[in-house]
Task: structure prediction
Amino acid sequence: MSNKDAIEKVSVITGLVILYCLLLFVIINWVANPRNNDLIINSDFSAFISGAAILKDRPTDLYNKLTQTQYQANITHSNPNEGYLAFRNPPIVALMYVPFTFIPYKIAYGISMFVNALLLLLAVYLLSDRKLTINSVFLLAILFMFVPVVALIDNGQISFLLLLIFIGIIKSIKDKKDFTAGLLTGILFIKIQYLLAFPLIFLISKSKKSYTLGFIISCIANIAINMLLYKSSFISDYLKFLFFSENINLGTESKENVSIVSLFAKAGINNTNPHYLLYILGTILILFGIFAFKIVKAEKSLQIQKAISAIILFITSVNIHVMAADLVLQIIPIMFLIKSLDGATKDRKLRIYFLLAILLLTPILGFFKLQWVGSIIYVLIAFYFINF
Result:
């Protein structure tokens, strides 16, 4: 190792230690401050840890509204009459949170914040071709100020796991391991709406038979595990609860979705409308067909990370349930654009900087209740990305 490499390595390690010590200081102060109690109690983490406690004690009541209300009130010491945040994931996700049920709620919340921060570091490391530089540390510091990252860490969400899954899919397809890519796509079952990515990734896979086989095996395994954790009626009970809980009383506001759902909500069409699903699914199918056609047309010239970036942007815009924290998936297109700066012409660099600015700033629209504008921006960028 040369002196230059040794200095770079020491600089990276020092930068990471300083960054994460600062972050730990912020987390401890955030959790310890009594003024933040309501925010901590009403974070998505309360739903995950409540689901875990129910799975541990009464698994067959996991999708029971009354049970979720009682458990969440007991764990967070909140008033059950003020409502609750529904646990809307498969039982396997609740299983991941079981260790947190043995720890006092606020401490568990703080630990989840730090674990998510470490998952972000892992994602940046993998997207940087497993080579962290001092620029990677600066990028990490910037990403900690990215609105979706703040929303995810603050809410204790699981979207960093989705980010890592998509990174694994990119690497698997690049390495011509389509079966592995299929297995990983099936794991998107932890947030079932993201299975929408399957047919699009299928189009860019090298061995479509291997990819499909891996996906089917993964889905079957997921369903089997969730049935064992819950009961044999898992699929029907889960889908019914998903539809039932897609409302503001259970923590889901249509207008806060960063997808076409907010666009329909803006037009006064929500899940109280008898034709709601017909409008939503019809629009998704039309856009899906056009986007799939564009991918097939450009398949041979598509780089894998660029293709996955476009797919992520597209499913963000057309999915049924996409909140601010889910936008951390855009770290993949952001990293792709940063890498594309190397060797780019002046004109291309300007376009890259413009796209980076849009991706980094669009989540801010949520502060102004303009998520519906964001949904339009994301679908337009998704189509643009294919031929970028």
User: Anything to note?
Assistant: The longest helix spans residues 3-32. The chain has 19 helices and no strands. The chain has a mean pLDDT of 91.
